[in-house]
Amino acid sequence: MRRREFVLTLGSAAVASPFVARAQQRERVRLIGVLMPLAADDPEGQSRITAFAQGLQEFGWSEGRNVSIEYRWFGGDGERARKYAAELVGQAPDVILATGSPSVIPLLQLTRTLPIVFVQIADPVGAGLIESLERPGGNATGFAVFEYAISAKWLELLKEIAPAVKRVAVLRDAASPAGIGQFAAIQSVASSVGVQVTAVGVNDSGEIERGIAAMTRALDGGLIVTQSGLAIRQRNLIIALAHGTVCPRSSLCAKTL
Question: Where are the domains of the chain?
């Protein structure tokens, strides 16, 4: 009887083990940290995290079931970026999603072991975030926004649409290293299309207003806004200034956000 009871018990355990294993897997909730440079109430930021959650669901990850997400929004404030980066790293998540260089840099200063996936980076190699596109190295990897050569197309398109444009202000985030590369690409084709380009470095909304106002003095002028976190956060201001101040006195306003 003892042998029979032992066999039955062993058989029951063998049958039950897959269910126990699956139950244990369901209990394992992965933690994802998300560091965003926008404000929490920014519609652009909300649309991005909605798309992120939908993408996770497509791969079987559902918040509240097998994944938990910790969001931090610093709204372009460098001090808060460092604070929230430390908070996320302190929670030791399975992976951190970081948007833009202002999010990635403080994270890499804090950890070289936690996996970091970045998005919205124009030049991850030039910014020192990875070693190369082929072999990122370290604990960070992700997606580059575009090739710098595309920036030159912005000027060519502007000239094609408005041939009268002779002077173009290139608005760029003075704190973003990507702005240098974007302006260099634009400048490389300026002479071939007969346009004089001027870099306008800005750090905040006040400098954006002054930069666009100065450009309005050129009646044959145009405007290109290079990609950056600052441009995204201040997109409504830039569009309002372009529509209300620049366009009536200029041949064309080109917005590249």
Answer: 28-144, 149-249
CATH topology for the 28-144 domain: Rossmann fold (3.40.50)
pTM of the prediction?
A: 0.64
Helices 78-90 and 101-110 sit at what angle, rounded to 10 degrees? 50
Query: Distance between CA atoms of 240 and 151, rounded to whole angstroms?
Result: 23
Residue 241's CB: how many other CB atoms inside 10 A?
A: 22
How far are the Cα atoms of 7, 60, 111, 149, 185 from residue 135, in angstroms, in the given order?
Answer: 54, 28, 19, 22, 25
> What is 149-249's CATH superfamily?
Response regulator (3.40.50.2300)
Q: In what order do the strands lie in the sheet with 167-173?
A: 196-202, 167-173, 221-225
* pLDDT tens string 140-191: 999 987 777 888 999 999 999 989 889 898 998 877 777 788 888 899 999 9
Residues 6 or more apart whose Cβ sits within 8 Å of residue 147: none
